[in-house]
Amino acid sequence: xxxxxxxxxxxxxxxxxxxxxxxxxxxxxxxxxxxxxxxxxxxxxxxxxxxxxxxxxxxxxxxxxxxxxxxxxxxxxxxxxxxxxxxxxxxxxxxxxxxxxxxxxxxxxxxxxxxxxxxxxxxxxxxxxxxxxxxxxxxxxxxxxxxxxxxxxxxxxxxxxxxxxxxxxxxxxxxxxxxxxxxxxxxxx
Length: 189
What we know:
Blueprint: E1 2-6, E2 22-23, E3 26-27, H1 28-37, E4 43-46, E5 59-61, H2 69-80, E6 85-90, H3 98-106, E7 113-118, E8 121-122, E9 126-130, H4 134-143, H5 148-154, E10 157-160, H6 162-166, H7 181-188
Parallel strand pairs: 1-4, 1-6, 4-5, 7-10
Antiparallel strand pairs: 2-3, 6-9, 7-8, 7-9
Helix pairs in contact: 2-4
């Protein structure tokens, strides 16, 4: 299994590249790359500004189909990956729990997609995707259907429910993400 970090967003609500915003004196992207590097032999960054991340020494790929949001990034990551199964996460989740990453990875056998549900919401940017998802992703991209929930419903998915997650990450901090300056200020505190 490989790791894939999605860092291709425009950060329009944040005002600058949020992947480089620092938490505890470390850029978000660096925190995530370090964590995934502990588990996976290869970590990919999917970004449309590769120069921003060259210093990490990881393989960087751009979206194959531009401006398609996270679904386009997942498509690029799965296409690039040398492994069938891949842990996919966003670059703006600074408190990703290593035990949760391990749990999702271990429980992915036999499924196209394994996704947690927390506070009643699916968390598709902290999930395991297999290359078996690619035909459905390509269909959705061709049709302009960018909904990750549509993908989850269309492939052989396993949902990890909240009771399983809280046994690992009691507060669900893994799913805290940064979209705005206000989010950043709150998380930084």
